[in-house]
Amino acid sequence: MTASGPAQLQRIDAGALRAWPLPPLDGEADKEARGQVLVIAGSREVPGAAVLAATAALRVGAGKLAIATAASVAVPIALAMPEARVIALPETSSGGIDTQAVRLLEHEVRSAGCVLLGPGMLDRVATRDLAAALAPLLAGRAAVFDAAAMDAAPFLGRFDEPVLLTPHAGEMAHLTGDDKEAILRDPGQAARTAAHRWNAVVAVKGPCTVVASPDGRAWMHEGGNAGLATSGSGDTLAGAIAGLAARGATLEQACAWGVLLHAQAGERLAARLGPVGYLARELPLEMLAVLRGLDAPERREPSEDAGAHG
Protein backbone atom coordinates (compact mmCIF):
# COMPACT_ATOMS: atom_id res chain seq x y z
CA MET A 1 0.00 0.00 0.00
CA THR A 2 1.22 3.45 -0.74
CA ALA A 3 2.31 5.83 1.98
CA SER A 4 -0.43 8.16 3.08
CA GLY A 5 -1.28 10.69 5.72
CA PRO A 6 -3.91 10.20 8.39
CA ALA A 7 -6.69 11.66 6.24
CA GLN A 8 -6.01 9.45 3.21
CA LEU A 9 -7.30 6.00 2.33
CA GLN A 10 -4.92 3.22 1.39
CA ARG A 11 -6.18 1.18 -1.55
CA ILE A 12 -7.00 -2.51 -1.16
CA ASP A 13 -6.05 -4.38 -4.32
CA ALA A 14 -4.12 -7.50 -5.25
CA GLY A 15 -0.76 -5.74 -5.39
CA ALA A 16 -1.26 -4.10 -2.01
CA LEU A 17 -2.16 -7.38 -0.34
CA ARG A 18 0.79 -9.21 -1.86
CA ALA A 19 2.93 -6.57 -0.15
CA TRP A 20 1.00 -7.25 3.08
CA PRO A 21 1.12 -11.06 3.19
CA LEU A 22 -0.84 -13.16 5.61
CA PRO A 23 1.10 -14.85 8.42
CA PRO A 24 2.79 -17.85 6.77
CA LEU A 25 1.53 -21.35 7.45
CA ASP A 26 4.08 -23.96 8.41
CA GLY A 27 3.81 -26.82 5.93
CA GLU A 28 3.87 -29.23 8.86
CA ALA A 29 1.49 -27.25 11.06
CA ASP A 30 -1.45 -29.15 12.56
CA LYS A 31 -4.99 -27.83 12.80
CA GLU A 32 -4.30 -26.28 16.19
CA ALA A 33 -1.53 -24.12 14.74
CA ARG A 34 -3.87 -22.85 12.01
CA GLY A 35 -6.25 -21.43 14.58
CA GLN A 36 -9.72 -22.13 15.90
CA VAL A 37 -12.82 -20.20 14.93
CA LEU A 38 -15.90 -20.02 17.12
CA VAL A 39 -18.95 -19.03 15.07
CA ILE A 40 -21.88 -17.93 17.24
CA ALA A 41 -24.64 -17.63 14.69
CA GLY A 42 -27.93 -18.85 13.31
CA SER A 43 -31.48 -19.15 14.58
CA ARG A 44 -34.53 -21.27 13.93
CA GLU A 45 -35.54 -18.98 11.05
CA VAL A 46 -32.04 -18.39 9.61
CA PRO A 47 -29.94 -21.48 10.41
CA GLY A 48 -28.04 -21.35 7.14
CA ALA A 49 -26.14 -18.20 8.10
CA ALA A 50 -24.05 -20.22 10.53
CA VAL A 51 -23.21 -22.76 7.82
CA LEU A 52 -22.26 -20.09 5.28
CA ALA A 53 -19.99 -18.25 7.71
CA ALA A 54 -18.40 -21.45 9.01
CA THR A 55 -17.73 -22.77 5.49
CA ALA A 56 -15.98 -19.55 4.50
CA ALA A 57 -13.84 -19.64 7.66
CA LEU A 58 -12.56 -23.11 6.80
CA ARG A 59 -12.08 -22.32 3.11
CA VAL A 60 -9.63 -19.51 3.91
CA GLY A 61 -7.53 -21.83 6.04
CA ALA A 62 -8.71 -21.89 9.66
CA GLY A 63 -7.83 -25.19 11.30
CA LYS A 64 -10.63 -25.89 13.78
CA LEU A 65 -14.26 -24.90 13.87
CA ALA A 66 -16.92 -24.73 16.55
CA ILE A 67 -20.44 -23.46 15.91
CA ALA A 68 -22.62 -22.27 18.77
CA THR A 69 -26.22 -21.89 17.70
CA ALA A 70 -29.85 -22.03 18.80
CA ALA A 71 -30.73 -25.40 20.34
CA SER A 72 -33.68 -25.82 17.96
CA VAL A 73 -31.38 -25.98 14.92
CA ALA A 74 -28.17 -27.41 16.41
CA VAL A 75 -28.69 -30.93 15.06
CA PRO A 76 -29.53 -29.89 11.46
CA ILE A 77 -26.52 -27.56 11.45
CA ALA A 78 -24.29 -30.36 12.75
CA LEU A 79 -25.46 -32.57 9.89
CA ALA A 80 -24.94 -29.79 7.35
CA MET A 81 -21.47 -29.00 8.72
CA PRO A 82 -19.79 -32.29 9.70
CA GLU A 83 -16.44 -30.53 10.10
CA ALA A 84 -17.68 -28.58 13.12
CA ARG A 85 -18.27 -29.17 16.78
CA VAL A 86 -21.77 -27.80 17.39
CA ILE A 87 -22.92 -26.36 20.71
CA ALA A 88 -26.65 -25.99 21.43
CA LEU A 89 -27.59 -22.76 23.20
CA PRO A 90 -30.76 -21.77 25.09
CA GLU A 91 -33.21 -19.58 23.18
CA THR A 92 -35.45 -16.69 24.04
CA SER A 93 -39.17 -16.79 23.24
CA SER A 94 -38.43 -14.60 20.21
CA GLY A 95 -35.91 -17.05 18.81
CA GLY A 96 -32.71 -15.31 19.94
CA ILE A 97 -29.90 -16.71 22.07
CA ASP A 98 -30.48 -16.24 25.78
CA THR A 99 -27.71 -14.51 27.72
CA GLN A 100 -27.52 -17.60 29.94
CA ALA A 101 -25.52 -19.02 27.04
CA VAL A 102 -22.47 -17.05 28.20
CA ARG A 103 -21.62 -19.66 30.83
CA LEU A 104 -21.77 -22.39 28.15
CA LEU A 105 -19.52 -20.38 25.85
CA GLU A 106 -16.82 -19.21 28.23
CA HIS A 107 -14.45 -22.12 27.63
CA GLU A 108 -15.01 -22.07 23.86
CA VAL A 109 -14.37 -18.33 23.68
CA ARG A 110 -11.11 -18.63 25.60
CA SER A 111 -9.99 -21.48 23.33
CA ALA A 112 -10.70 -19.64 20.08
CA GLY A 113 -8.30 -17.61 18.00
CA CYS A 114 -11.24 -15.66 16.63
CA VAL A 115 -14.88 -15.36 17.65
CA LEU A 116 -17.54 -14.41 15.10
CA LEU A 117 -20.87 -13.34 16.54
CA GLY A 118 -24.10 -12.33 14.85
CA PRO A 119 -24.86 -13.85 11.42
CA GLY A 120 -28.47 -14.98 11.18
CA MET A 121 -29.29 -14.26 14.83
CA LEU A 122 -32.82 -13.11 15.71
CA ASP A 123 -34.07 -10.98 18.63
CA ARG A 124 -31.96 -7.83 18.40
CA VAL A 125 -32.12 -7.08 22.10
CA ALA A 126 -31.08 -10.59 23.13
CA THR A 127 -28.26 -10.58 20.57
CA ARG A 128 -27.04 -7.19 21.76
CA ASP A 129 -27.10 -8.33 25.38
CA LEU A 130 -25.25 -11.53 24.53
CA ALA A 131 -22.57 -9.60 22.62
CA ALA A 132 -22.16 -7.15 25.50
CA ALA A 133 -21.90 -10.00 28.02
CA LEU A 134 -19.28 -11.78 25.90
CA ALA A 135 -17.16 -8.67 25.30
CA PRO A 136 -15.12 -8.96 28.55
CA LEU A 137 -14.21 -12.56 27.66
CA LEU A 138 -12.70 -11.54 24.33
CA ALA A 139 -9.50 -10.04 25.76
CA GLY A 140 -6.46 -11.20 23.83
CA ARG A 141 -8.30 -12.70 20.87
CA ALA A 142 -9.78 -11.48 17.62
CA ALA A 143 -13.53 -10.90 17.44
CA VAL A 144 -15.90 -10.02 14.60
CA PHE A 145 -19.33 -8.59 15.42
CA ASP A 146 -21.75 -8.84 12.52
CA ALA A 147 -25.45 -8.07 11.99
CA ALA A 148 -27.45 -7.61 15.22
CA ALA A 149 -24.37 -8.20 17.40
CA MET A 150 -23.10 -4.78 16.30
CA ASP A 151 -25.80 -3.17 18.46
CA ALA A 152 -23.43 -3.81 21.37
CA ALA A 153 -21.20 -0.95 20.17
CA PRO A 154 -23.50 2.00 21.00
CA PHE A 155 -24.85 0.05 23.98
CA LEU A 156 -21.38 -0.33 25.55
CA GLY A 157 -20.05 3.01 24.31
CA ARG A 158 -16.49 1.76 23.83
CA PHE A 159 -14.83 -1.63 23.69
CA ASP A 160 -11.96 -2.31 26.09
CA GLU A 161 -10.10 -3.95 23.19
CA PRO A 162 -10.96 -3.38 19.53
CA VAL A 163 -13.32 -5.78 17.81
CA LEU A 164 -14.27 -5.67 14.13
CA LEU A 165 -17.70 -4.33 13.14
CA THR A 166 -19.01 -4.95 9.61
CA PRO A 167 -21.99 -2.65 8.87
CA HIS A 168 -23.35 -1.71 5.48
CA ALA A 169 -24.60 1.85 5.15
CA GLY A 170 -28.09 1.03 6.40
CA GLU A 171 -26.73 -0.73 9.47
CA MET A 172 -24.33 2.14 10.12
CA ALA A 173 -27.24 4.57 9.99
CA HIS A 174 -29.09 2.39 12.52
CA LEU A 175 -26.06 2.27 14.83
CA THR A 176 -25.21 5.97 14.70
CA GLY A 177 -28.48 7.73 13.90
CA ASP A 178 -26.76 9.37 10.92
CA ASP A 179 -28.33 9.72 7.48
CA LYS A 180 -27.77 6.69 5.24
CA GLU A 181 -27.22 8.83 2.14
CA ALA A 182 -24.58 10.88 3.96
CA ILE A 183 -22.78 7.66 4.92
CA LEU A 184 -22.86 6.49 1.31
CA ARG A 185 -21.41 9.82 0.16
CA ASP A 186 -18.49 9.62 2.59
CA PRO A 187 -18.02 6.10 3.99
CA GLY A 188 -14.46 6.98 4.95
CA GLN A 189 -15.55 9.66 7.38
CA ALA A 190 -18.31 7.45 8.76
CA ALA A 191 -15.93 4.55 9.32
CA ARG A 192 -13.23 6.69 10.95
CA THR A 193 -15.66 8.46 13.25
CA ALA A 194 -17.21 5.20 14.42
CA ALA A 195 -13.83 3.49 14.84
CA HIS A 196 -12.63 6.29 17.11
CA ARG A 197 -15.92 6.51 19.03
CA TRP A 198 -16.20 2.79 19.78
CA ASN A 199 -12.51 1.78 19.85
CA ALA A 200 -13.25 -0.69 17.07
CA VAL A 201 -12.08 -1.60 13.60
CA VAL A 202 -15.04 -0.63 11.41
CA ALA A 203 -15.70 -1.82 7.87
CA VAL A 204 -18.46 0.16 6.15
CA LYS A 205 -19.48 -2.15 3.30
CA GLY A 206 -20.74 -1.01 -0.07
CA PRO A 207 -19.64 -0.27 -3.66
CA CYS A 208 -16.76 1.50 -1.95
CA THR A 209 -15.89 -0.43 1.24
CA VAL A 210 -13.83 1.44 3.81
CA VAL A 211 -12.00 -0.21 6.72
CA ALA A 212 -10.92 2.11 9.54
CA SER A 213 -8.95 1.42 12.70
CA PRO A 214 -9.23 3.36 15.98
CA ASP A 215 -5.88 5.09 15.38
CA GLY A 216 -7.14 6.76 12.20
CA ARG A 217 -5.62 4.50 9.55
CA ALA A 218 -8.05 3.51 6.82
CA TRP A 219 -8.20 1.38 3.70
CA MET A 220 -10.55 1.45 0.70
CA HIS A 221 -11.73 -1.18 -1.76
CA GLU A 222 -13.75 -0.43 -4.89
CA GLY A 223 -15.11 -3.34 -6.87
CA GLY A 224 -17.29 -6.39 -6.73
CA ASN A 225 -20.56 -6.60 -8.64
CA ALA A 226 -24.33 -6.60 -8.27
CA GLY A 227 -24.44 -10.35 -7.76
CA LEU A 228 -22.83 -9.98 -4.35
CA ALA A 229 -25.98 -8.23 -3.13
CA THR A 230 -27.66 -11.53 -2.34
CA SER A 231 -28.89 -13.35 0.76
CA GLY A 232 -26.03 -14.82 2.77
CA SER A 233 -23.27 -12.91 1.01
CA GLY A 234 -22.42 -10.89 4.12
CA ASP A 235 -22.31 -14.09 6.19
CA THR A 236 -19.64 -15.53 3.91
CA LEU A 237 -17.60 -12.32 4.15
CA ALA A 238 -17.79 -12.30 7.95
CA GLY A 239 -16.77 -15.96 8.07
CA ALA A 240 -13.81 -15.41 5.76
CA ILE A 241 -12.56 -12.51 7.86
CA ALA A 242 -12.89 -14.61 11.02
CA GLY A 243 -10.99 -17.49 9.44
CA LEU A 244 -8.13 -15.23 8.39
CA ALA A 245 -7.99 -13.66 11.86
CA ALA A 246 -7.87 -17.13 13.43
CA ARG A 247 -4.82 -17.83 11.25
CA GLY A 248 -3.07 -14.90 12.92
CA ALA A 249 -3.88 -11.88 10.76
CA THR A 250 -4.72 -8.66 12.58
CA LEU A 251 -8.32 -7.50 12.35
CA GLU A 252 -7.41 -4.80 9.82
CA GLN A 253 -5.44 -7.23 7.66
CA ALA A 254 -8.02 -10.01 7.89
CA CYS A 255 -10.73 -7.56 6.88
CA ALA A 256 -8.76 -6.14 3.95
CA TRP A 257 -7.98 -9.63 2.66
CA GLY A 258 -11.54 -10.83 3.27
CA VAL A 259 -13.07 -7.91 1.39
CA LEU A 260 -10.88 -8.54 -1.66
CA LEU A 261 -11.41 -12.31 -1.62
CA HIS A 262 -15.16 -11.76 -1.41
CA ALA A 263 -15.22 -9.22 -4.24
CA GLN A 264 -13.01 -11.25 -6.57
CA ALA A 265 -14.93 -14.44 -5.81
CA GLY A 266 -18.04 -12.59 -6.98
CA GLU A 267 -16.25 -11.48 -10.14
CA ARG A 268 -15.21 -15.07 -10.92
CA LEU A 269 -18.77 -16.32 -10.48
CA ALA A 270 -20.20 -13.45 -12.52
CA ALA A 271 -17.82 -14.22 -15.38
CA ARG A 272 -18.86 -17.87 -15.35
CA LEU A 273 -22.56 -17.74 -14.46
CA GLY A 274 -23.71 -14.20 -15.17
CA PRO A 275 -23.80 -10.92 -13.24
CA VAL A 276 -26.64 -12.01 -10.93
CA GLY A 277 -28.08 -15.32 -9.84
CA TYR A 278 -25.08 -17.01 -8.27
CA LEU A 279 -25.49 -18.05 -4.64
CA ALA A 280 -23.71 -17.11 -1.45
CA ARG A 281 -22.92 -20.79 -0.85
CA GLU A 282 -20.81 -20.72 -4.03
CA LEU A 283 -18.57 -17.89 -2.81
CA PRO A 284 -16.31 -19.75 -0.32
CA LEU A 285 -14.85 -22.14 -2.90
CA GLU A 286 -14.14 -19.22 -5.24
CA MET A 287 -12.52 -17.36 -2.32
CA LEU A 288 -10.14 -20.29 -1.95
CA ALA A 289 -9.14 -20.02 -5.61
CA VAL A 290 -8.53 -16.27 -5.27
CA LEU A 291 -6.57 -16.83 -2.06
CA ARG A 292 -4.29 -19.35 -3.75
CA GLY A 293 -3.46 -16.76 -6.36
CA LEU A 294 -2.84 -13.93 -3.91
CA ASP A 295 -1.08 -15.91 -1.21
CA ALA A 296 1.45 -17.26 -3.73
CA PRO A 297 4.94 -18.56 -2.89
CA GLU A 298 6.65 -15.42 -4.10
CA ARG A 299 6.15 -13.74 -0.72
CA ARG A 300 7.79 -10.45 0.16
CA GLU A 301 8.24 -8.81 3.51
CA PRO A 302 5.48 -6.26 4.19
CA SER A 303 6.39 -2.74 3.24
CA GLU A 304 6.79 -0.05 5.87
CA ASP A 305 3.40 1.45 5.07
CA ALA A 306 1.51 -1.82 4.73
CA GLY A 307 2.46 -4.71 6.99
CA ALA A 308 3.83 -2.36 9.61
CA HIS A 309 0.35 -0.86 9.84
CA GLY A 310 -1.28 -4.23 10.43
Summarize this structure as a short list of keywords or feature phrases.
single chain; alpha/beta; UDP-N-acetylmuramoyl-L-alanine:D-glutamate ligase; ten-stranded mixed sheet; disordered N terminus; disordered C terminus
* Number of helices, counting only DSSP H or I runs of 4 residues or more: 12
CATH class: Alpha Beta
Radius of gyration: 18 Å
Helical amount among residues, as a percent range? Answer: 40-55%
Biggest sheet, spatial arrangement of strands:
1-10-9-8-7-6-5-2-3-4
Unreliably modeled segments: 1-6, 297-310
Distance separating the two termini: 11 Å
The CATH homology group name: Ribokinase
The assigned CATH architecture is: 3-Layer(aba) Sandwich
| Arithmetic mean of pLDDT | 91
Largest sheet: 10 strands, mixed
Number of strands: 10
- Strand share of the residues? 5-15%
Question: How many independent structural domains?
Answer: 1
CA-based shape: globular
Structural class: alpha/beta
Helix and strand run: EHEHEHEHEHEHEHHHEEEHHH
- CATH topology: the name is UDP-N-acetylmuramoyl-L-alanine:D-glutamate ligase
